[in-house]
Amino acid sequence: MAETVSRDTLDPLKIAEDWTKAGRKVALATVVETWGSAPRPVGSHLVIDQEGDFEGSVSGGCVEGAVVAEALEVLETGKPTMLEFGVADETAWRVGLSCGGRIRVFVEPVA
C-alpha cells in the first residue's frame, strides 16, 4: 500500500533542489530572526519559482503573498533581499502577522 505524503511534511529545500534540476528558476525565503509570537521558527523556508508557485511557509499564511512578490523580483534581478514584517513597522497596514509577532525573512535566488 502506497503511503500518502502530506504537503505539510514536504521539505522545501528538497523541493527547491527538484525544481532547480527541472530547469525552474527558484528563490528561497528563510526566516532568519523572530520577535514575540512569530508563527514560524527561525530556519523555516518558503521556496518560490518564476511563475509564483510556492511550497513551505515562513509565517503560517500571514505574509506569504508579500514574500512571493518580493521573491519574483529577486528572481528577476538576481539580488537577494531582507524583508521584515510585523505590527510595529510601516508594513503593518499592508501585511501583518495576526499573532502580533515580527519576523525577518532573507530571500535569495537558488543557483
UniProtKB/TrEMBL annotation:
InterPro entries: MoCofactor_Util/Proc (IPR052698), XdhC_CoxI (IPR003777). It comes from the Bacteria. Residues 19-86 form the XdhC- CoxI domain. It holds the Pfam family XdhC_CoxI. This is XdhC family protein. It comes from Stappia sediminis.
